[in-house]
Specification:
With 334 residues, the chain is mainly alpha-helical. The protein contains 15 helices and nine strands.
Amino acid sequence: MCDGVHEDVDPAAAVLQAADRLRAQPPQQRDGAASGARLITLTRARDLLNLEIAREADAFGASGQWEAEGSNSPQDWLRHRCRMATADAYTAVTVGAQMATLRESTAAVDAGRIGFAHLDLMARTAAAVERCSGGRRSLDEHLLLQLAEAHSVGRFYYDCYHARHAEDPQGALQEHVDAVERRYLEFSMQRDQLVRVSGLLDTVGYAAVRTQLEPLAKRNGAEDRRLRSRRLADAWVESAVHVLDQGTLPQHGSQRPHLQVTATLETLLGAAGAPGGEMEYAGPLTAATVRRLACDSRLVRVLLDAESAVIDVGRARRTAPPATLRALRIRDGG
């Protein structure tokens, strides 16, 4: 017997038992320093377990058992049988395959000089370098390990990217081109006047959008309690309005793109019992929204007969000339 554990007990099972005992302990009050030290210890144990998982994943992949059990790949088996996220499954397989090559870095994780996340980035980079060179070149592990020991995981991502780019600039470019091809943006109408937006951007496209939105997403003083996600959404709408106001977009149907609202005269006058308005793409609008939009717009009179056929279309005119708008802004403070 050693440390209360029989020698014939599988070490993996012993680890599980130790984890059960750890979790069974009642919560304890600790000061910040003690809590921080405990987190470091737990994270170190997690890194060592991740190393063992990666090593076992590599051996399991070579065994072919995953295929015998009907999985498409070792990663697929890990996702379903080990309840892993897709990214975690690929990490285990990739690191496991590179551990024999990245011996110095694996030992650094063992010794606690770098984290498992550093090794994950290095393994992905090593795999990419081998793939682009057809196995003829390998990663300069020693140089990257020095950077891993000096930099956070976030900063080390850049180190690995630059190392990969130095070995295969054309491959790095192709990856970016492929990322651009995967861009998409979709809108789906929901109930209650909402539209769900989903999409995907490459990093350069994201940087352009983020740069455009950031100046408009700042808080408007100490009383602005909007969450950042709300401020970004407001900034996106505001930037679109700015572009429409500038009139720099390519013309469509012989006119510059603009928001088009249709409403009755009674709606514009705020008459009792008047219907709401309608906007292209947005659908029905409240009368109050119609009147707000009409404050700074061009109006076109359209006359319909009893069968709703158009019998006259007037010329567009501003609801208020520029001089009047300036006077109103001075008078109303906005």
